[in-house]
Model the fold of this input.
Amino acid sequence: MLIPTFACIIGISKYKDDSISNLPAAEIDAIKLARSLKNWGIPQSNITLFLNEQATIKNIETYFSKLRQLKEKFNMLFYFCGHGFRTSLPHPLSFLAFFDSYIENKYCINGLSLDQTIKKIIQVNSINSYIFIDACYLRINNIPNPKLESELDEKKNSQKGLLCLLSSGIEKSFEDQAEHYGYFTDALLKSLSQIRLYNASPTTFIDLINQQLLEKNLPLPEVYNIGIQQIDFLLQKLSFEWEKNNLIRKNVLASIQDISVNQHRKIICLIGKMGSGKSTICKQLESEKFKMICLQDLCKINEKNLTDSFILAVENKLKNKFYSSIQSYRYCIFLVDSFVFQDISQLNSFFRFIDEYKLNLLIFSNKSLKEFLNKDLQSFLIEWEIPPFNKEEAYQLLKKNTSNSPKINYELIQLVCKGNPLKLVQSCKSFPLDNLPIEMEKNIENAMAAIYSSGIVLDEELFRKTFSLTKSSLTFLEQNNLLLKSKDYWIAHELLYEVVENKQLTINKKATIDYWHKQIEKLPDHLEGCRSFIVTIKCFGYEDWLDNCLESSFYTLYHHKPIEENISFFKDGIDIFLSKSIISKASLLLIEIFIELDMSNFARKLLFKNAKIKRSLRAKYKILQAIISWKTGNFFESIKYSSEVINYTKNPIELCQAFFNRGISFFLFGKFKAAFSDFSLIHARAKDEKCIGLSRCMLGTIIGLKEKNIPKSKELLESSARLLYKSNDFAGVWLAWNNLSEIMWKIGKYRLSEIYLEKALKISNKINNKTIQLETYRNSLLLYLRTEGAFSKKINSILSDIEKNIFLPEIFVCLQLYNTLGTIYCLRYNLKKAIYYVKKAIPLTVNNSNFHILTLSNISLLYFLLNKKNKANEFYNRAINMAEERKQDLILQQIHFDHKKLASKTTQFT
Done:
């Protein structure tokens, strides 16, 4: 029979006497230990937690008085985290300082001496007593022998034992100032996590603690052990039990707690499919007493007002004055279901919020969240899959939830359902393949295999004909809920898929491909059909005769809104073409889609070398290579690919595209005359309104920036915006307004610049293209820097939006953005961020003099901030000389503006 454990846990961070210093980690450590004991199997009713004002000498005395009344045998755990006090008498005494303690005449009033504390503990009816104290300056004067004292009280053959650990003896104890946890308690929790499943000796346990403290060069705890042979207070029964209608899996709760104690402020994500018991786990973990707070039913995370919506949800839950500021929430672990995010894309901003305020979060999710996070946040997340129900748990669930005998088909059902209780119950009620005639069973198995390989069924007659299926087999599956009608097609129940896999039914690859080829030709615009066709080809392999249907499917998905729903299918397309190393019409369309979606890194994967390319596709292939090259900053490569197309194609559309890409590359590389020549040629030859509009846009930009003929530039750019709007090229319209805005602020016409910027912002918000949005924000920063200053609210808001989405593959955008952010943070005197962005800009701009001019200027600004004037002047002169050599008058003005702005504040800053 297992002996129960009672735990008294005390954590005091704030004292009644203001002259006693605060201990931020004490309260948090006490809560962590209480939380851990509960989830490791000690009933919450057996754990008493005294925090701050609750931890008075009177309350502690009352607790021990009640504990002495217990007649049953139990183990006792006493934990104290707070101030220790040691008198300076000839025979010094060590005291635990409670909330209402104070020091008078070098004595601790309302404290409890360490000797008295231990005496109170061994006087209760405990078998083994465990004392863990995380406090400074403590030592036991009189070491009691609980076994001997018990036998002196006429209790023969007493089994009493005592293990006491004092965190640092008479030396000072330490805590992590940033993360607020005590090093001793942290080592204690991690060691308990390692030994809780076996009968560890005190020596093993103490060695684990010492090893962690030695790594940090910290003092080792003083140890007193009388009669304890094994650490047994955590040896609780951790199988499962029923609580009302919920199966409580204690071993899972304990494993989650193990993860928690071994991580500091990392978000933990528990992943489990529907039916894996996430809601039950959440309810069991929740404990307002131990600050594990469930928010999943209380709030929807609103990105626009992130902090307020989160705090309001917490306050509504707690209604407790103790949680008066967000800093207090660091004590809690928030239990949140992933559905509270109104949009899964909000994860990045929410995780940054959690990181900024050093909060603790545990998320329940149906799937991995890492793919939605920026790389810098992925390491901030620990993911753990909830284990499937074991055989005994599954048996109990079947027995509880169905009147059918769980012995029928039990082994197959357990294998098929992998321990998911919802599917277990479903399988018991509707598993159809028992006691059927052999021929009927064979027909049904063929139908199941056909549905499995096809994914969905659109045209039943075409499906049956292609796979040679009987109508009765499909009817049987539909009647038994294994084939379900959804809108205008049929889908399989998940159980059907698992039956096919576990029975290893034969798949007819040829019939599957043939069915989908005919189906897409018949219904080319059917969204679910196109998705299933792409997945089918990914599984079975690409063949040339399928290319037209693939192209049609990609086209359909691209024009379906919201397009984000189809990204995964476009990514499946990459696997299709990579497996064959082939360039086809469908793969070129897919590359164009990735470019339009601002996903150049995926497009680049399909532009592999040594691919098989038909002659008719070669020009298109080179044009796409040119686009990817200038988008990623490889302007020479882009010029080379574009020139190759110009030299051998006679197709007027391909010629215009090649001249445009070469013109863009010349423009970004600073070769404005060459760019002007290419755009002029397009403008003269093109018949398509879109081509004319884009060339006119770039001509207007060059005339405005280089020739400073503002009336002509304005006329061309406004005209291009009208033409491109008629052609539904909204990205082109944005480019015209954004470029016109930039020209205006560069010549000092700020009001006009703001008018055009508002037009650009309005369109960029509709386009849903991150590169376009970031470039608009960058332009906004430079305008508002001139009109409102580096510390304005508008600048603050834009910086926040930019830094949520800064991880982009398009180098030509990044190099400009890093330069701008470097300038802004220099003028905000934020050295850390300024250095960060300038360092990022240097390798991207070093081979492009036009952008490198501003990088050199930013380095000069940094040296001015660091009060290194010689270095500052050196880089300033380099930037000025480079701008003058290239006749970059507007960039010269920008450099003078930035340095003048900083110079007006430098003396004050220094």
The mean pLDDT is 86. The radius of gyration is 35 Å. Residues 5-226 form a domain with the Rossmann fold fold (CATH 3.40.50.1460).
